[in-house]
Amino acid sequence: MTDAPIRVTVWNEFIHEQTAASTREIYPEGIHAALAAALREHLGSAVAVRSATLDEPEHGLTSDVLARTDVLTWWGHKAHDRVSDAVVDRVQRRVLEGMGLLVLHSGHASKIFRRLMGTSCMLRWREAAERERIWIVDPSHPIVDGPEGEFFEIPHTEMYGEYFDIPRPDEVILISWYEGGEVFRSGCTFRRGKGKVFYFSPGHETFPIYHDANVRRIIANAVCWAAPCGSPYFGDGRRIEAPLSPIAAKHIVDESLHRKG
């Protein structure tokens, strides 16, 4: 056991906040700042948070940064294609080694999520500022520890609807209903290698969803859930020259060749 804080890197494109007044009004310091504040609010000294953005060298995700990251949160929208494949490779390796990954809202179309899922990860959407009711369908799961009742609501959001082209999740924790009638698997978990992945859809750039108390609590819970645990991970094939115990030489005879007909 260790009392060391969970080391979180909050990654954000940080494009909308610099180019759109509507986003800047809601998130004046960037979506990453709102997410980092939510983690500090709920987890305090149990978390050490840093941020990284698209336009930093290597998108702020150098080998050294990722080696010192227990959980990476990912928010992207306009510039998925600008993310370097080399950085995606690097993040994928760290997830397989045990780093947790939280993919938020339009991050469903990010290179890293699509790489890990092996599918298009596409869906149906509509921007109509409609009401979203988020049903808690696995109330025993630690990610939904906190919100009261069977569901909570967001008054204005972007609709995401099925079919959502992802592999079958390990767990579906949350399902959203929208006032236009669509439903969506809005909170899903996956295991990749030793890493834990959580996809969470609420969080549009022109609505103050990352200021919502329930959304902030769920993201903080998910960081704790996704933090590395367990034994060391060996994902590469390894030739073992020396056995743990002596092995006597064996000569196997196929008796079927010596049976009399």
Task: Explain this structure.
It contains seven helices and nine strands. A nine-stranded mixed β-sheet has the order 2-1-3-4-9-8-7-5-6. A hairpin with a 2-residue loop joins strand 8 and strand 9 (195-200). The protein has 261 residues and is of the alpha/beta class. It has a domain at 6-119 and 187-234: 3-Layer(aba) Sandwich (Rossmann fold), CATH 3.40.50. The longest helix is centred in the C-terminal third of the chain and has 14 residues, at 213-226. Helix 3 crosses helix 7 and helix 5 (85-97) packs across helix 6. 24% of the residues lie in helices and 28% in strands.
**Spatial strand order of the main sheet:** 2-1-3-4-9-8-7-5-6
Overall mean pLDDT score?
93
Q: What is the CATH architecture assignment of one domain?
A: 3-Layer(aba) Sandwich
Helix content: 10-25%
The number of distinct β-strands equals: 9
Tally of separate helices: 7
Strand content: 25-35%
Ranges where pLDDT stays below 50 over 5 or more residues in a row are none
CATH class of one domain: Alpha Beta
Oligomer: single chain
* Helix/strand order: EHHHEHEHEHEEEEEH
Distance between the ends: 65 Å
Shape: globular
CATH topology of one domain: Rossmann fold
Rg on CA atoms, Å? 22 Å
Quick one: biggest sheet? 9 strands, mixed
Class per helix and strand makeup:
alpha/beta
Question: What is the name of the CATH superfamily of one domain?
Answer: Class I glutamine amidotransferase (GATase) domain
